[in-house]
Write a structure and sequence with these properties.
heterodimer, B: 11 strands
Chain lengths: ~110, ~110
């Protein structure tokens, strides 16, 4: 099935460890996004990429880096994980029109202990 | 500063009745609005949208109303069904080219009581 694939689905890290969350889409979308979901905070944008080769900060970028490897793949890296980064992470992609036609992945539940 | 607000964290509605979910926004640059539905352990899925040039958009049991002067939108579900139990996120964005990112609200958990 076409869509957005995220790996891994679950991860437990120790404080200070690093990891990369992977995201790939097969819908030929230009734009890709990383959001985090926390209780009472909704979905907050971490980074986004409007096209291959470009990335921009969102609302909560501190502690994260991203790579738009090609049109299909957009990875999120935590260089030194902190307990405050415990969250559910969603990757999404979208077409340019109509606006906001996001397709989300199923999420990665990350716990930092 | 929360630009998109959903002030009701939860809502319970009897099956068959109308569910009304509300959303307020503060940024007057927003010119299109969307509702997403999220089941546990799944990503959000697009439900319905509305452009600021309209005040109503219908899709089956789902209707979104937009009141630009009040900076308020609502989602009506009629009749409500058990499968509608989920978290609903309101989202807003602008149609400026190259600025497709959305701002989401905090979500409302809807429970349909059989």
């Amino acid at each position: 099935n076409a869509g957005v694939t995220q790996t891994p689905k679950f991860q437990v890290l120790k404080t200070g460890q690093s990891m990369t969350l992977q995201c790939a889409q097969d819908m030929n979308h230009n734009s890709m996004y990383w959001y985090r979901q926390d209780p009472g905070m909704g979905l907050r944008l971490i980074y986004y990429s409007a096209s291959e080769g470009t990335t921009d900060k969102g609302e909560v970028p501190n502690g994260y880096n991203v790579s738009r490897l090609n049109k299909r793949e957009f990875s999120l890296r935590l260089e030194s994980a902190a307990p405050s980064q415990t969250s559910v992470y969603f990757c999404a992609s979208s077409v340019d029109a109509p606006p906001g036609s996001y397709t989300f992945g199923s999420g990665t539940r990350l716990t930092v202990v | 500063d929360q630009q998109v607000k959903q002030n009701s964290p939860s809502l319970s509605v009897q099956e068959g009745r109308i569910s009304i979910l509300n959303c307020d926004y503060t940024n007057s640059m927003f010119d299109y609005f969307l509702w997403y539905k999220k089941y546990p352990a799944e990503g959000p899925t697009f439900l319905i949208s509305i452009s600021s040039i309209k005040d109503k958009n219908e899709d089956g049991r789902f209707t979104v109303f937009l009141n630009k002067s009040a900076k308020h939108l609502s989602l009506h579900i009629v009749p409500s069904q058990p499968g509608d139990s989920a978290v609903y996120f309101c989202a807003a964005g602008t149609t400026n080219f190259g600025n497709e990112k959305l701002t989401f609200g905090t979500g409302t958990r809807l429970t349909i009581i059989p």
